[in-house]
Specification:
elongated, alpha/beta, 32% helix, two-stranded antiparallel ribbon, 384 residues, disordered C terminus, disordered N terminus, 23% strand, single chain
Length: 384
């Protein structure tokens, strides 16, 4: 038998007197009413990546282009055009940043408008760029222990701006400035994300929360509650060797996971690889090919170094590196010319060097190629 009263609970007043509080039961969905209406699938503000009326977490390491991409997609939404082969719902957009000042936003917007073929003046009343750089009170809420989350004046101003502008897209860049709590406290993180979820639900706006991942990870730094609290997350990665960015959606409760877009920076705007002009596409292809050749060469070199088999940079040597590498699985696809190009290229990049590698069985030094690693010097790798 339950020990709880059947009609309420007892609370004590400071003076010791008790008062019975009536507890209301939870309200369930009305299935009769629901049966009269056809269920609708989740709408998307940005196809497959950003659901409407929800909070989405957007992460990427520093300098990957999160801010530029956010401002570009907000611009596309306001202009009613697609971008990066993404279907973007037309509607007013807010892009709020705590990191970039007005001059940087203006400079970026000018190039975006030029690249997207949009007149900047045509975006008046549709695109709302807001800089909070240098402001001292950018937190959206303060967690009052025991009392929950208390919304800040900035949160209330954002909500009012969404309602006044009718914004369907809201980008908040970034969470490090907007969240004042402990990122490792699951309770604080969940309350913060729920605050934004309520804002998204009440206004119907898609809210994209921009953040940095933890080192070596694609999720958000701190508590896993960040990912648990949102229904969608997408990630931008940057291959600095090829300059290719990749957008993926590792968490997508309303769409198929594994969606991908590959794009590059071109004259101030991100452009899909397939949409590059022929000369730019060829340059990108050449860069990617060179990178692949370099990586294959270094993989072969690492494997032979592990086996204590030295290779040479001399074409007349029986152990000429390219000649040896084309017989290996890693180097075979690139052929002799590809491995020779990598040898020359890696020397120019100071990625490889000729040095004493180890002592042979006769205690004589064995010389050959090795990869130059950070902090390395000309001392031998091993002895004995």
């Amino acid at each position: 038998m339950s020990s709880f009263p059947d009609d309420g609970l007892i609370s004590l007043h400071p003076d010791g007197a008790s008062e019975k509080q009536i507890i209301e039961s939870l309200t369930a969905l009305d299935l009769v009413e629901l049966s009269k209406v056809k269920a609708q699938p989740q709408a998307f503000a940005i196809s497959e990546f950003v659901p409407a009326g929800e909070v989405t977490l957007f992460t990427g390491a520093g300098s990957t282009g999160k801010s530029l991409l956010g401002q570009q997609l907000a611009t596309a939404a306001a202009a009613g055009i697609g971008s990066l082969n993404l279907d973007i719902a037309k509607g007013p957009a807010i892009y709020l940043t705590c990191e970039d000042g007005p001059k940087q936003m203006h400079f970026r917007q000018e190039w975006l408008c030029k690249g997207l073929g949009i007149g900047m003046a045509s975006l008046v009343g549709k695109l709302h760029l807001i800089s909070r750089r240098g402001e001292l009170s950018n937190e959206l809420g303060v967690d009052d222990k025991g009392e929950g989350l208390i919304t800040s004046s900035l949160f209330q101003r954002i909500e009012r701006t969404i309602r006044e502008t009718g914004a369907r897209h809201v980008w908040l860049d970034n969470v490090a400035h907007l969240f004042a709590g402990n990122e490792n406290d699951r309770g604080e993180v969940t309350r913060f994300v729920n605050l934004l979820n309520r804002l998204a639900g009440n206004t119907g706006a898609a809210i994209v929360l921009v953040g940095h991942p933890s080192k070596g990870d694609h999720t958000y730094s701190g508590s896993t509650a960040w990912l648990n609290a949102v229904r969608s997350q997408f990630v931008i990665e940057h291959d600095t060797e090829t300059d290719v960015r990749t957008l993926t959606n590792p968490k997508a409760n309303y769409a198929a996971k594994g969606q991908q877009r590959r794009f590059v920076w071109l004259d101030g705007v991100f452009v899909l690889e397939d949409d590059l002009p022929p000369d730019k596409a060829k340059a990108l292809l050449d860069t990617a090919k060179a990178h692949s050749e370099n990586e294959a060469f270094l993989q072969c070199l690492a494997e032979l170094t592990r086996q204590r088999r030295a290779v040479s940079d001399s074409k007349n040597a029986t152990n000429f590196a390219p000649k040896v590498f084309v017989r290996m699985n890693e180097g075979k696809p690139f052929g002799m010319q590809g491995m020779e190009r990598a040898l020359d290229r890696l020397y120019r990049l100071d990625r490889i060097e000729k040095a004493e590698l180890w002592k042979g069985p006769d205690r004589k030094p064995v010389f050959g190629l090795r990869e130059v690693r950070e902090g390395s010097n000309s001392d031998c790798l091993a002895s004995g």
